[in-house]
């Protein structure tokens, strides 16, 4: 699996420096992948998480798990922020 393939594969995982400190989130929402993984690690089922967060979809949770597994294999994701303008150093 190549890096380019994986970045495209994780179309529900987003990172934006202005949202949750740049942590990986679900579809740009203020809900981090880490939060979902923590709940699964604590024993919650996918069904329970979907009840807690009705705006989530099953695929969001599945992709969070896939993303975590991919990172655990030692890959890094290089997201681009083309929608953001670079900061000016002028004061």
Number of helical elements: 4
* CATH class (first level) name: Mainly Alpha
Strand order of the largest sheet: 1-2
Instruction: Compute the separation of the termini in Å.
Output: 45 Å
Q: How confident overall, as mean pLDDT?
A: 83
- The sequence of SSEs as H and E is HEEHHH
Low-confidence stretches: 1-5
Give the oligomeric state: single chain
Sheet with the most strands, sense and barrel status? 2 strands, antiparallel
Architecture (CATH level 2) name: Orthogonal Bundle
Count of individual beta strands: 2
Superfamily (CATH H level) name: Winged helix-like DNA-binding domain superfamily/Winged helix DNA-binding domain
Note the overall shape: globular
The CATH topology annotation reads as: Arc Repressor Mutant, subunit A
Percent helix range: 40-55%
Number of domains: 1
Structural class: mainly alpha
Beta content comes to under 5%
The gist of it:
The chain has 91 residues and is mainly α.
Main attributes?
mainly alpha; 91 residues; disordered N terminus
Describe the structure.
There is one protein chain. The protein is mainly alpha-helical. It has helices spanning 3-9, 33-41, 46-52, 58-72, and strands at 13-14, 25-26. The protein has a single domain, classed as Winged helix-like DNA-binding domain superfamily/Winged helix DNA-binding domain (Arc Repressor Mutant, subunit A, Orthogonal Bundle). It is built from four helices and two strands. It has a two-stranded antiparallel sheet with strand order 1-2. α2 (33-41) crosses α4. It is globular, with a radius of gyration of 15 Å. The relative contact order is 0.19.
